[in-house]
Amino acid sequence: MIDRPDLADDERFKTNVVRGANRDVLVPVILAEIKSRSRAMLLARLAKAGIPCGEVLGLYEAMTSERAVTGGLVTKQPHPVAGSTHVLAPPYKLDGQRLPVRLAPPVLGEGTSEVLSGMLGLSAERLAELKASGVT
Predict the structure, then answer these.
(1) Bridge-partner residues for 84, per DSSP?
(2) pLDDT number for residue 21
(3) Domain span holding position 10
(4) What pLDDT score was predicted for residue 111?
(5) CA 12 to centroid of chain Cα atoms
(6) 121 with 86, same domain?
(7) Exposure string (b/e) for 6-45, b if CB count within 10 Å is 16 or more?
């Protein structure tokens, strides 16, 4: 995969036991070789050799990938402040259909009063004091 047959011929790396003993030498060499090649090229070589593999995407890459978009995993929802925002759809399907996103994410501070009064039992007066001091 990395075009280094010399590594296989090196006595320090011929068997698993000696590779383990020389790991501190071998690993940096392999990492440097991998980093010098594109992900696409390495995946193509692995697949061609019949080695099971798959691309591991970063979060942004995964969420903006063609697969996520065409699969309906990321939806665009209206948002009162931003105009619109991307929201993850449920990852499962029922009867072949992905369930719709019912609500856009809340804006900053939405629900604060309900949480503070309902769950923490704060009075209306205390909520007013917090709001006046800049708590959202």
Answers:
(1) 78
(2) 97
(3) 5-48
(4) 87
(5) 38
(6) no
(7) eeeebeebeeeeebeeeeeebeeeeeeeeeeeeeeebeee
Q: Answer yes or no: is 54 within a domain.
A: no
Check residue 136 and give its pLDDT: 67
Secondary structure letter of residue 57 according to DSSP: -
Tokens, residue 97: 């259909």
Q: Are strands 83-88 and 74-79 parallel, antiparallel or unpaired?
A: antiparallel
Q: Specify which residues 76 forms β-bridges with.
A: 86
Domain count, the chain: 3
pLDDT of the residue at 113: 87
Low-confidence residues of the chain: pLDDT under 50: none
* Any domain includes 53: no
Q: Is 125 exposed, middle or buried (0-12, 13-18, 19+ CB in 10 A)?
A: exposed
Residue 43 covered by a domain:
yes
- pLDDT tens-digit readout, 87-104: 889 888 899 888 888 877
Cα 136 to Cα 133: distance, rounded to the nearest angstrom: 9
Instruction: Please report the pLDDT score of residue 107 as a whole number.
Output: 84
